[in-house]
Amino acid sequence: MTAGQEVPNTVQTDPRRWVILAAVCAALTAIIVDNTILNVAVPTIEHDLGATPAELQAIINAYVVVFAGLLVAAGLVADRYGRRRAVTIGLTILTLASVAAAFAPSAGWLIAARTIMGVGAALVMPGTLAILVHTFAPYERVKAFAVWSAAGSAAMAIGPLLGGLMVERFGWPGVFVISAALSATAVVLIAWLVPESRDPHHRTIDVPGSIAITVAIASIVSSIILAPDYGIAAPIVIAGLVLTIAASALFWVRQRRATSPMVEMSLYRNRQFAGASLAVAVLAIGTGSVLFVLTQHLQYVLNYTPLQAGLAIAPLAVGVVSASYVGARLPNRIGYRRSIVTGFAVTATGFLVLASLTPATPYAVIATGLLLAGIGSGLASPSVHTTVLGAVPPDRAGMGSALNDTHQQLGIALGVAIVGSAVATGYRHFAPASLNAEAGSSLGGTLSELSDNQDGLIHAAYLAFTQAQSIGMLTCAVFAVAGAVVAWCALTPDHHRPDRT
Q1: Major facilitator superfamily (MFS) profile domain spans which residues (predicted)?
Q2: Cβ atoms within 10 A of the Cβ of 265, count?
Q3: 389 within 8 A of 334, measured Cβ to Cβ
Q4: Fewer CB atoms inside 10 A, N or C side of the chain?
Q5: How many helices (H) and strands (E) does the chain have?
Q6: CB neighbours (10 Å) of residue 482?
Q7: Of 62, 159, 163, 72, whose CA–CA distance to 118 is shortest?
Q8: Per-position DSSP letters for 410-470, written without gaps between them
Q9: pLDDT in tens, the chain (501 residues)
Q10: What CA–CA distances, in Å, run from 257 to 46, 73, 138, 253, 282?
């Protein structure tokens, strides 16, 4: 079978399936790196572009919000026009937008470029899992998903490391240059190795519905980000919440009335699909925000260089990669529900360890917390993906994959907004009055206004930030526990291996 041939929509055991998996993982690596590589560059961007805390959150979230909002529509595009085609177009957009981001002269330009990158990532992600669904037989999918999850985790580690190296060598624009190179390489591998597949039913793309769900997600995230600066009752925040409700209602009505809806709402009546989807979304609120906060602690409080910060984050990915091997086999011993709950509980423990950080806490404690959080994610991820996609018909694999990714990316976007806003608010609360009020809006802003001989004020700023960070990490732990509770209550018990069909 050549890359140009189209495979039928019945699941086959493709002899080239592991090579195809490698190409898919290359595409996944490109979009995960785009999401994580920027974290270690946040302090440098704040300094070079004069970005405010809200702008920094927007730079991170512009990618994630558009990514999440367009995933369902992108899944339909992949189902209808071909998964390989959608992935290659998405990677091309990522390449070009990354180059544009590297030349950003302002925070606004960078936010716009990250928005376009989100469009490209949305086209890529649904196709990755959908290709695997059509390439692997059901009994092998949990292994394939474990490799897919491990590749994403490795990319999570590579991102900060590459980011730190590029920031030190070339400044923050370097992170986008390397992102462009990874995306361009993945385009070649996908076009060369992956066969085409599509849904034969040719469902229509609901453009108004796609816009509505994207606006709803962007509005709720923006409202959360703006609340610390303007107040929860400010007109701009209230307007964002109203727009969220209106756009969500429009999307819901369109899906209920459409003859061929973007989202089959009946899936949410499936206990397995709905339970696993909600659980992973809640967990992602915590996992999606931990690096955004922790990289500031590493570079500001511990005075790590960007490269050292990237290396310091590595235990998170090491935990995920190492535990993914066990996570792929754990369902055969204790079932999918217990695997998910166990993983979530371990992740929550890691967040609790990170909540104990003070300015004097040694790095070993940080590494332990990150390692536990990663191990928990590695244990749970294969079971989560298998449970969600197992409830979706193979012909709608793109849509099912898109929904799975939408729930996760929505959780990440909300996490950066919720936890980032909690840390910003907490910092203002704990910062002593002796610190400049304007500079006190963020730790980076404060430090830029203080001289090296103001040790007392610098230590006070460090202490205020770590106290605020503890609130953020406790919030992450609460969401991880909530995900475990949702999984335990919603998913049905199971203790058997998937049928080899």
Answers
A1: 20-495
A2: 10
A3: no
A4: C
A5: 17, 0
A6: 18
A7: 62
A8: HHHHHHHHHHHHHHHHHHHHHS-TTS-TTGGGSHHHHHHHS-TT-HHHHHHHHHHHHHHHH
A9: 334 444 444 445 566 778 888 888 888 888 888 777 777 788 888 878 887 777 887 887 788 778 777 777 787 787 778 888 889 999 999 999 999 999 988 888 999 999 999 899 888 887 787 788 777 777 777 778 778 777 876 777 677 788 888 888 888 888 899 889 989 999 988 888 887 777 666 566 777 877 888 788 778 877 877 777 677 788 888 998 899 999 989 888 887 777 767 777 777 777 778 888 888 788 788 777 787 788 888 888 888 888 888 888 888 878 887 887 788 788 888 888 888 899 999 999 999 999 999 998 999 999 999 999 989 988 888 788 778 777 777 666 656 666 777 787 778 777 877 888 788 888 888 877 777 544 556 777 777 776 666 777 888 888 888 999 999 999 989 988 988 898 888 877 764 444 443
A10: 46, 17, 33, 6, 29
Burial zone of 65 (CB within 10 Å; 0-12 exposed, 13-18 middle, 19+ buried) = buried
66 membership: H or E segment, kind and range: helix 53-81
Q: Residue-wise over 93-105: b if at least 16 C-beta within 10 A, else e? A: bbbbbbbbbbebe
211 vs 70: CA distance, rounded Å: 8
Nearest to 44 by CA among 162, 168, 160: 168
Burial class (CB in 10 A: 0-12, 13-18, 19+), 365: middle
The tokens for 280 are 């992973």
Radius of gyration of the chain (CA): 22
CB count, 10 Å around CB of 396? 22
**In this structure, which amino acid lies at residue 338?**
R
Task: Collect all residues with Cβ–Cβ distance below 8 Å to 306 and sequence separation of at least 6.
Answer: 40, 41, 43, 44, 163, 164, 165, 167, 168, 299
CA distance 465 to 412: 22
Whole-model pTM: value is: 0.74
- Rounded to 10 degrees, the C-alpha dihedral 31/37/42/45 comes to -80
Coil/strand/helix, residue 196: strand
Beta carbons within 8 Å of 269's beta carbon, 6+ residues apart:
none
Find all residues with CB under 8 Å of 137, minimum gap 6, and list them.
11, 12, 13, 500, 501
Q: What is the dihedral of CA 409, 411, 415, 416, to 10 degrees?
A: 20
AA identity, residue 62: A
Q: Are 120 and 392 in contact (CB under 8 A)?
A: no
The token duo for 362 is: 């040694």
